[in-house]
Amino acid sequence: FSDRMSRINETTVSSHTITFLSDSGIYKNDIISVTLPVAFTFGGSYDFNDIQLQQGSSGACDSATYTAKTIGSAASGSTWGATYSSNKVSIIADTDMIIPGRCIRVILNTNGAGHTITNPTVTSDTVYHVTTSTASQSGDAAIIILNDLGTPDSDQIQISGTIDTTISLDLDTVVTGCANNTETSLNAVDLGVLTPGTVSKSNATIKYICIDASTNAGLGLNIFARSSRSNAAGGLVSGGNVITSATADLTLTGTTSGYGIRVSSVGTPSAGTLTINSPFNSGTSGSVGALPGILTTAAQIVDSTGPVSTGASSRIAVEVAAKASNLTLPGTYSDIISFTALVNF
User: Distances in Å between the alpha carbon of 48 and those of 32, 75, 105, 241, 315?
Assistant: First the structure.
C-alpha cells in the first residue's frame, strides 16, 4: 500500500496517488474508503470530479497498466459513486467490479480553487498515516511532511538552463525539386549547353539548389548569396570571358546575356515565416536577380522576422538561370555561389 504525493512540503497543495492490492476484489455495494489525517485541509468544493479510480492489469502495482473507471456523484450501473466528507473519500460500486488479485489506484487530485488538498503546517519533519479500507481488508501508509527552516520549499530544487541562440544552414541539389524529403547532395547545377539567345535554367527535371535553414533568434535570420567571381559583379567565367550577372529579366527581348538566381519557393516552414527579397522574388521562371561578386556585399535573398524553420519535405528552392549572346566566346562557363546565414539581434 502506498501514497505517492506530488508535493511533501508543508502548507503546500498536493495530489495523492494511492495504490494497493485487492485480494478479494470489489463488488456491488462494496465501498473503498481513503482517509487522510485531519491535519490535511480539503478545499470546500472537493467532490467526485477530483477523484479517479483505476483498475490494474495485474497484482504487480508498480508495473501494471491501469484502466480508469467511470466516476459520478452516485453509484449507478457501471458508474462508481464518489463522495467526500471530513477528510474521508468513499467510492461505492454498483454493477461494475474490480477483479480479485488486481491492483487498485485511487487518485485524489488538486484541481484549482476549492478543489485542493493542502499539506499540514509542521514545525519539524512529521510522519502521518493515510488509511484505506474495503469490505474485506484495510491498510495504511506512512507519509512524511517536510519542514526546513532554511528553505521555504524543502522538497524542491530549482533547476535552470540557458538556451543559446542557434542557426543552421544546409545546402543540397536534387533532380526532383525541393518539395520532397530527398536530399541528393549533388553540389552542382549543370545548365547544359547555353544556346545563344535562349535562357537555360535549372528546373524540376534538372536540379534546384535546396536550402534548409532555421534559427531560434527572436528577430529571425537573413540568408545571403554571392558569386565567387573576383569582381563587384558576379558572373559565369571561362578563362578571361564572363557572362555577367543579369541586370534585368533574362526572358525579355533585347537582353542579350546574363546570369543570376531566383528563389522560386520558400516551401512550407514548420515554424515561422520566410520572405523572398527583391529582385530574387519574381514569379516568372527565368526571371532572375543579379548576384554580386566577392568585392562587394553579398545579396540578401531570404529573411525572417522571428524564429523560423524550413519544412523537412518542402524547403527553400533556388533556381539558377543564364543566357548567352551570339558574341559569347566558346568555353565552359562556371561559378561557385556561396550562401551564408546570419541571425538578427
Answer: 13, 11, 15, 85, 51
Q: Does the predicted TM-score (pTM) go above 0.70?
A: no
Cell numbers given for 118: 493542502
pLDDT, tens digit (0-9, with 9 covering 90-100), for 104-157 = 999 999 988 899 999 999 998 999 999 999 988 899 999 999 987 666 667 888
Euclidean distance between CA atoms 24 and 102, whole angstroms: 9
Residue 238 CA to residue 249 CA, distance in Å, equals 23
Query: What's the CA angle centered on 177, arms 173 and 179, to 5 degrees?
Result: 115
d(C-alpha 80, C-alpha 74), whole Å: 7
Phi, then psi, of 31 in degrees rounded to 5: -120, 130
CA distance 54 to 67: 5
* The C-alpha cell that represents 189 in the structure block: 547545377
* Pair 235, 229: CB distance under 8 Å: yes
Q: How far is CA 266 from the centre of its chain?
A: 20
Rounded CA separation 218/239 (Å): 45
